[in-house]
Model the fold of this input.
Amino acid sequence: MKKYMYKFGLPVCLAAALIANSACTDDNDWKVDKSHDRLFGIAGDKITVEPEDISATVTFNGVPNAQYYIIEVSTDSLYDDVELGGTPHSVIYGQDKSITKSPAVLQNLAGDTKYFLRIKAQNSEKADGHWAYYQKSSAVAPFKTKAEQIFNQLENSDRGEDFIHVTWNSEKEATDILVTDADGNEVQTITLSQQDKQAGEYTISGLNPSTTYIVMINNGEAVRGTLNATTTAAMPAADFKYFLPEDTEIITKALLDEIAEQAKAAAGSETNYSVTIGIPAGKTYDFHGVSEDGSATNVKVPDGMSVTFFGLAGGDAPTINFVKNIDLEGSHAFVAFENVKVVDSGAQYFLNQGNACTVGEFRVKDCEMSGFKNAFFRVQNSNVKVIEKLIIDNSIFHDMCSGYSFIHVDAGSGAGVVKNIDIDNTTLYNVATGGKMFIYSKATEMESISVRNTTFYNCIGNNNYWVDFNGAGTTGTFEFVKCLFAKTPDDVTKNIRSNNDPNIEECYHTTDFFKTLKGSNELGISSDDLFVDPANADFHFKGGRILYCGDPRWYTEE
Done:
């Protein structure tokens, strides 16, 4: 406010007093310019903004004689020459005289959006104060709201091999859904119908299997929610696909024989045919044959059949209780388990192969296996058995192998051969704590062993070697790459018994891992200091630490 001070001499003052008295009036003879009677302006450098997703709290210093305050925000620039509400995207708060003091909460903003902001004081009897602008480092600048999230979290049933089902808060306004690939390239734009908006859900179809998409829900130009979602793996191709009925209780040899006859007809071959058995999500099945007297027997895969036991999308992975073992007698291009949970219910081994067989690939992918008392994979006795490759990918194994090794080849003298072992993106914990080795081969060479991106915790105790060829080494690749070794059940430092040492690259170990693997890097901390909660199988790294080794599923802290 400007103050004007007038100084007069004494005669003038006396004359003025006489005139005033003779006129008998209280009115002044001069007019005051009310434009000079202005409110103080707010200090721009005292304005602070705390943004949320669709709101922001504005704090400012009040001024004397202000009755209320007007706040204007806009995604366009604001400056003195712009009249109140003068931009295409102006939003004005306080014209109803509701903002009478600091702080003020601005509602109904758009998420993940930059806004310019200005404030001025108001009084009905005085001229407006000057505009004050939100600023950073003494310069006018926008603030940005946080990204809004009106999407609900995806459930397992919301993802399939060619669809993603999204739901959101139907009370929030939305106009469309944008789907892009992981690189941000547009895949689909869906205009939401009134029915979609009211339901708060939509199924995005026509997608590719095993693909990550970015899904955004918008209200006009404002993004109101974002999800990263990956479609499930497609049901593997085969000559014949069989969908296991949900009311099935047991996967038996008789069932496999029945499926084999249909597959042979589809393939036009009696000796080389493939099958994918789709197992409904969320269901539990026993696995065993049935003898003539009704007792449980092993489940023999029909000769010539290549088979994938595949857990279908639409819920949690199905569970298979192994009452008895799978038997690979005969010839098979491949035998695979994908996207299933497998639990020992009396079998003691996942595979305990004694009968003669020839198998191209034995594969475990996207699985969780637990409880097998003796071993996960065993090849034994004098019949000739050749398994070209054992593949383990993106799987978890735990609480097993108290009697034998995790992989145990003890046929000896070339009677049982596993030529190649390939393990990737996998976690093993509480494995062979009182049993034997991680890999054991009784004087039988292998062509290659490759273990990559794998986390080991509390594995291999009872005074045993980590890998033991009992005098025979590998003839090809023998490597551990980007593996994380954490804790052993005892402090015995038996390491690897082989004719040649493995190549170890970018591997790390904790202080409570007592084996000595040449080339592995000492972290200098224990497992408890490295992992969030290893005793309860949470192997995320503490404090956001990322080592880029071990199973990638644990790279970030939950």
Remarks:
- The radius of gyration is 37 Å.
- Residues 1-35 have pLDDT under 50 and may be disordered.
- The chain has four domains: 34-144, 156-230, 237-347, 350-355+366-558.
